[in-house]
Amino acid sequence: xxxxxxxxxDENGNPVYKLKKKFDTLDQAIAHxxxxxxxxxxxxxxxxxxxxxxxxxxxxxxxxxxxxKQRDKYKKERSW
Length: 80
Description:
The protein is built from two helices and four strands; from the N terminus they run ββαββα. By secondary structure, it is an alpha+beta fold. It starts with a strand and ends with a helix.
C-alpha cells in the first residue's frame, strides 16, 4: 500500500497528493529527520513515526517550532 500526503490544491480546487517517503527502520527515519531539521528554512520540527497503514516509518511535522539551539545541535551531528 502506498501512503500519500496532501501536496497542494490545483487550479480547480482539487487536492493533489504525493507519495510519502518510506524508511525500513526507525533509525533510518530518525537520521533523515535530523538532516531535515538541520536546514535553515525548516520552521516546524520533523520527527519519525511508524505508519499504521503500511507499517513502515515516515517523517512528519509534530506541531512544535524548531528552535535555533535544536537546529544547531542537528547541524553539528551531520557528518559529511
